[in-house]
Amino acid sequence: MTVERANEPHGRVMPRTVVRALGRILPAGPVRVALDRLAETPPDVHDVDEFGMDRLFVNDLGPILDFFYKHYFRVDCSGIENIPASGPAILVANHGGWLPMDAIMLSYAVARYVEQDIQPRPLLEDRFFYFPYLGTILNRYGAVRACQENAQRLLADGKIIIAFPEGEKGSSKHFRARGKVQRFGRGGVIRLAMATGVPVLPVTILGPEETYPTLGRVSLLKRSFGVAQMPISPLFPWLGPLGLAPLPTKWQIRFGPPQEIPTVDDMSRADRVQIRKLNERLRQHIQAELSEMYEERKGVFR
Prior knowledge:
Blueprint: H1 15-25, H2 30-38, H3 55-60, H4 62-72, E1 76-78, E2 89-93, H5 101-113, E3 121-124, H6 127-130, H7 134-141, E4 144-145, H8 148-156, E5 160-163, H9 168-171, H10 188-196, E6 200-206, E7 216-218, H11 222-225, E8 230-232, E9 252-255, H12 272-296
Parallel strand pairs: 1-9, 2-5, 2-6, 3-4, 3-5
Antiparallel strand pairs: 6-9, 7-8
């Protein structure tokens, strides 16, 4: 059973909701306190789940995320009906862009269209959580460190998770490698699906790779924050922090049908050759979709 595409949200964006959203993402300080008071926002202390997600924080970010989704990246979304109407699922997507805007926009797309009260949980590489401020925002939004244990706990709780098997190879790829889906690790997603019996849906995203056109990388923050590399792009580091703003590329998100992956009662007996084949088949599916989307699109910004 699948869900039909829900109606898009509509209605006016009230100034108070925008002020509240800005107050949620600004660093602590006088400006944030003033915005909270203008929006009549209660103290920013809320219940969070075991992984640190704050549902009120997610809801308050709605106006900002809606702006990026509809007006900045102008996302075209298709195949959302392939997501199961209930229960857990594993969304497997290609990765692009030095900052995880693809994880945020994909999570927002699912929560926006699916007719159930869900908040997909992106599994991200460790480096994103080392950044002060950014790591906290990602954590409160629902992002979780990528590992088998976290994924299994989320699926057991009926959550939809988003996996990026390319890992850092995808998010930090050179601009000349755009459109090329990198190797999918050692088959962790396939093993997870075999062990849990949860459906796996391939998701292809066009656009994030060009939001941060990486021309090279340099180690700037390793000593301070443990971040191994920072990108060199046409805008960064030349424009300072402003150079990290994503370019307004035109995005497409395409959800594919669930893949056929057998379940295995005893993973110690799982066929490694079969896992590698299924892993590569999943990668090739997303690569074929991405190549087709590149050929069909009219331009990077339209």
